[in-house]
Design goal:
heterodimer, A: alpha/beta, B: alpha+beta, four-stranded antiparallel beta sheet, 12 helices, 10 strands
Chain lengths: 259, 403
């Protein structure tokens, strides 16, 4: 069972984000493995424990992103690869999905690709489906449980968590899934994993090495602006009953020219 | 000179911080109020490999270095002192004493079960009438054939009711010329006939921990459990403190940081006179001091850890680190309570627990007054390190990782 986990290095959600002149900063707080990706790495490790095989973590990012890969290795991933993203400034998930799909195609025989449900910085949640589409593989996002995985018959069965309820889906391998936090409890790094992670030389692939065509981003990111500080005044409508309160509220809204 | 931790160290620090934050922090206030140690702490720490962090793999440890022990201590005490106390006594006082003074046979026989956490270890040194004046201890060990018979009482022993074994210092040579020359250490099975233990309640701090007494009445200990040679007990105990004390120093550093973080968070939110109190200069002065003290404490314990790594005697460095960090953590916690105002006086916020916990460390593991005497001895030249028959082994990655 060859499993690939796509991970991203993001800011720590506990960091204080500031925006100044279109530039985002999270101060000195170190970058982390995208929290949702921890669940994906954990699920990959559990599937390896149940079915054998190996787990490779891959990221598209700058040199610092190797720390996110080390986190995955410290948890127990067998190998890691970084794709250098220096030529990808301004890239959106359309571009990144092309890079990831080309990178995954370079591996021999991948059975399953896992993603966390979304990255905490871009929050698009569509990368896994875009990668699947480019590879021509089934995409099953928002997986809360993997019920069956059979490399022999080439089938995976999962349970997806949707707002309407739970959905059981069966698909042929290879397939791409993204996972939600209900799927498992990520393990801590182990000392053995930490030792291995700190020693491994993570190979770096460049965009040039991947067979990519010309990909244009579908989205142009505008420079972020700090939201204006709002002066908030809170007025309570006092009334004897809901009907009177509604009448008073409508009157106030009219006075304020809101309606 | 490289002033950087390795990426391995960074990952260890992060792992321990995550572990303590998820496994302990959510319920620590509750256990502290109950004055009980949560029953899952020791098994969880054992499972994670923390209890044998800096022991060689062939003795059941994780093969990390002494700096890793310090980093883990800092992160554990950031959440609560009771967690770090486990490392201090199990890993510091018990395991490292065996590593330093045990024979090869003793290390093979005793260490693996303790390093893995299958057995919990402790250190039983002080007595109701003997703490700082350690040479005045009264517990006796009398030879009887192939065994020694132990009688006496130990007090203020962390994990006394939880430990399976302990390094115990006794008086075995009643006719020794000087009282400190008649002491001998043993590794004692605390489940032996004649051993009774009990918890001490009503402590000012470390209430979520386990501190108690151990009484021995005619306890039979095999002579092959003697650690070191007869009469070496004082030296062995003092070198055990070099290790326990190091974890106290590192832990207190974490406590300074916990007080600092709590103060920064509160001061950024609480407003007086129309602005967050972090804008007021007297509050800023308190926070700046904690910030500086944290860095000083950190540098001191890391240097002590580095000396252990390279196999250099570190009694002076450990003494300085312990004294500075524990005094600074007491001040930091006091000011953290002050910054929190009335709310600092309530256990709704963690800072009162930090203050109560911090007071213990200025007393135990060699009171800070004793630390002054140690340091004065070095400064005046009246105290010189003589080589010990057994030194704490320098960290050697290759042999530490051998199976």
């Amino acid at each position: 069972m060859n499993i690939v986990v796509c991970v991203k290095q993001t800011a720590d959600t506990a960091a204080t984000i500031t925006v100044d002149g279109g530039k985002v900063s999270w101060g000195d707080t170190p970058l982390v493995l995208n929290p949702w990706d921890e669940f994906a790495v954990e699920e990959a490790l559990r599937l390896r424990e149940a079915h054998g095989g190996n787990v490779t973590a891959i990221t598209v990012g700058p040199e610092s992103a190797v720390e996110a890969l080390r986190s995955a290795l410290a948890m127990g991933a067998d190998a890691a690869v970084r794709v250098e993203d220096i030529e990808l400034s301004g890239a959106d998930s359309l571009v990144v999905s092309a890079v990831l799909a080309a990178a995954i195609a370079k591996f021999e025989e991948v059975d399953l690709v896992l993603f966390g449900r979304e990255a905490v910085d871009s929050n698009t949640g569509i990368l896994s489906t875009q990668v699947a589409r480019r590879l021509g593989w089934p995409s099953m996002p928002l997986v809360a449980a993997v019920h069956a995985l059979d490399a022999g018959s080439g089938v995976v069965e999962v349970e997806r968590m949707l707002s309407e309820g739970r959905q059981r889906v069966r698909a042929s391998l290879p397939a791409v899934i993204s996972v939600v936090k209900e799927i498992n409890e990520p393990r801590y790094a182990s000392f053995m994993g930490i030792r291995k992670a700190s020693r491994v030389e993570v190979p770096v692939w460049t965009i040039g090495e991947l067979s990519l065509g010309d990909i244009e981003p579908g989205v142009a990111w505008l420079p972020p602006e700090a939201a204006e500080e709002a002066d908030v005044d809170c007025e309570f409508i006092e009334a004897e009953d809901p009907l009177e309160a509604a009448r008073k509220l409508v009157k106030r809204l009219r006075e304020e020219k809101v309606i | 000179m490289e002033f950087k931790l390795s990426s391995e160290h960074d990952m260890i620090r992060k792992m321990v911080a995550d572990f303590a934050a998820k496994e302990v922090a959510p319920t620590i206030a509750e256990w502290d109020r109950k004055q009980e140690m949560a029953p899952d702490i020791l098994p969880k720490m054992a499972d994670q490999g923390l209890l044998g962090i800096c022991l060689p793999v062939k003795y059941g440890g994780q093969g990390m270095d002494y700096i890793s022990l310090g980093l883990a201590s800092e992160e554990l005490e950031y959440v609560d002192t009771s967690l770090r106390v486990v490392l201090s006594v199990h890993t510091g006082l018990c395991c490292l004493t065996l590593l330093q003074w045990g024979t090869d046979e003793q290390k093979k026989e005793f260490l693996p079960a303790i390093a893995t956490g299958e057995l919990i270890g402790g250190g039983a040194f002080s007595e109701p009438n003997a703490g700082s004046d350690f040479a005045a201890i009264r517990m006796t060990a009398k030879r009887d054939g192939d065994d020694f018979i132990l009688n006496g009482e130990k007090m203020w022993i962390s994990l006394s009711t939880k430990a399976d074994v302990a390094v115990v210092t006794t008086r075995s040579m009643l006719d020794a010329e000087k009282s400190h020359e008649g002491l001998t250490c043993f590794l004692v099975d605390l489940h032996s006939k004649g051993v009774t233990t009990g918890d001490i309640h009503g402590k000012l701090g470390v209430r979520a921990g386990s501190t108690g007494w151990i009484a021995m009445q005619d306890v039979r200990v095999p002579a092959r459990n003697m650690i070191g040679e007869e009469g070496e007990g004082f030296k062995i105990t003092m070198s055990a403190f070099d290790n326990g004390r190091y974890t106290v120093a590192a832990g207190a550093t974490g406590l300074i940081r916990a007080s600092l973080d709590a103060s920064v968070a509160y001061a950024s939110e609480r407003e007086t006179f129309g602005k967050p109190i972090s804008h007021h200069q007297l509050v800023q002065a308190k926070i700046a001091k904690m910030h500086l003290d944290y860095e000083i404490a950190r540098l001191l314990y890391l240097k002590a850890g580095w000396k252990k790594n390279v196999g250099l005697r570190n009694t002076l460095e450990t003494s300085r680190a312990k004294q500075f960090a524990t005094n600074a953590s007491y001040e930091a916690a006091t000011e953290a309570v002050q910054i929190h105002g009335g709310y600092g006086f309530s256990d709704e916020y963690p800072v009162e627990r930090f203050l109560r916990n911090s007071k213990g460390a200025v007393i135990y593991e060699g009171s800070n007054e004793i630390q002054s005497l140690i340091q004065a001895g070095y400064a005046l030249g009246t105290r010189r390190d003589k080589p010990l028959r057994c030194e704490l082994p320098a960290y050697d990655e290759e042999s530490w990782l051998e199976e």
